[in-house]
Specification:
The chain is mainly beta and 391 residues long. It contains 3 helices and 19 strands.
């Protein structure tokens, strides 16, 4: 790497003193040995660790194996829609059908699959994302007239080694789950009239750090105390940057340099159900082994603590999973928080598939057919209207 590039990459550290390594309760080691020559490295943070990292990254530090502080840059990508999706295989091939209509984010264009010749023949969509993606949500939006009875999902890192994500079950337009990274996704839909307005995919948040790795040195990420506000990064990027090597930080564990009882409640970290916040009585209302002061869904079992929008409210109970809304405001009292409910209609054709009114999308788009869009406008104008549900 040229001297010019290295000098451009280095930026003067903040003047504030760095916290001691023991100030961080968790660590994650870089899953690579020492580099042979000085190189710029991109390292991806483990997804589960993001719930323990402030959104301003004020409680993160990168150290080498001599406990030397490392200058680093942060790239942060929030949860959101996966763009530029294409189907590589469809069970319907017709000059009258446009495959792009499935992924154009336009509810007025549709794709109709052939009527199955056999009752057990599904409509099939095969998607290649071109790289590994960590999905959090899949949305399949049928037209109001569609009759879809069942669905199945399979995925994998190659087309020839797909495993079942969701076994054949009753159709639902919204599938939320903690998916492992995948590149290929196969969607099967059983029905007598399978016509879709759109198919949408939403990815989990992601974070990467960039730093210059030195020969013979090993690196680790320290993080975890949400009360710590001491930004050690030199820049926050809005897009990814070139790098010589791409690595990952391994799954995190307790930092051996930190106190064995980080919250000082006389319960060791390894056995404490809430290691970062004092919980002497180990209160755990829902019995999920996450102590109440640390639990983002106190009354609902939530072992994963998944919180894709990082607003402190677990996805299991969040009324707006893809956009931060810690106050959970919901002025029309439907199932969707105001942040992702840009139509305050009480009923719409959306009810046919979910049994509730409103908008499910986390990106602010309205998953309605044309009728639903009209309802949204009517609701915003304050005109009362009710549409009868299909019997």
């Amino acid at each position: 790497m040229s001297t010019l590039l290295l000098s451009t990459f280095f930026v003067q550290f903040a003047s504030a003193a760095a916290p001691a390594p023991s100030a961080y309760p968790y660590m994650a080691s870089l899953n690579a040995g020492p580099v042979e020559i000085e190189q710029r490295v991109q390292a991806t943070l483990p997804s589960p660790s993001l719930r323990l990292i402030r959104t301003d990254y004020g409680n993160v530090q990168v150290l080498d194996d001599l406990n030397g502080e490392v200058n680093f840059i942060v790239f942060d990508e929030p949860a959101g829609p996966v763009r530029n999706v294409n189907a590589v295989e469809l069970s319907t091939i017709s000059d009258e059908q446009e495959p792009k209509n499935l992924f154009d984010d336009n509810r007025l264009t549709t794709f109709a699959f052939d009527q199955p010749l056999e009752a057990n023949s599904p409509a099939t969509i095969m998607v290649d994302f071109g790289k590994l993606v960590e999905l959090h949500r899949i949305e399949l939006w049928p037209t109001f007239e569609s009759e879809i009875a069942g669905m199945e999902l399979r995925a994998g890192n190659s087309k020839d080694s797909l495993s079942t994500l969701k076994r054949r079950t009753v159709f639902s337009p919204i599938i939320d789950s903690d998916y492992a990274p995948l590149r290929w996704l196969e969607i099967k839909l059983w029905g007598t009239n399978v016509t879709l307005e759109d198919v949408n995919f939403f990815k989990k948040p992601a974070a990467k750090v960039y730093f210059t790795a030195q020969p013979e040195r090993r690196y680790r990420l320290l993080f975890g105390d949400m009360n710590l506000d001491n930004k050690r990064f030199s820049e926050r990027l809005s897009s990814t940057q070139p790098s010589d090597q791409q690595f990952n930080f391994a799954n995190y564990k307790f930092n051996p340099l930190a106190s064995e009882d980080f919250d000082g409640d006389s319960i060791p970290n390894e056995t404490d159900n809430c290691p970062l916040v004092s919980n002497k009585t180990q209160t755990d209302q829902d019995g999920d082994r996450i102590g109440d002061p640390c639990d983002n869904a106190v009354e609902v079992k939530n072992y994963s603590q998944l919180d894709v929008d990082r607003d402190g409210v677990a996805d299991l109970i969040d009324n707006c999973k893809l956009l931060p809304n810690p106050d959970q405001k919901n002025r029309d009292k439907d199932e969707f928080g105001d942040e992702c409910d840009n139509a305050y209609a009480k009923e719409s054709v959306f009810e046919k598939w979910t049994g509730s009114a409103g908008n499910s999308n986390g990106d602010g788009s309205i998953p309605y057919s044309l009728i639903g869009m009209i309802l949204a406008l009517v609701a915003i104008l304050g005109i009362g209207v009710t549409v009868a549900k299909k019997k």
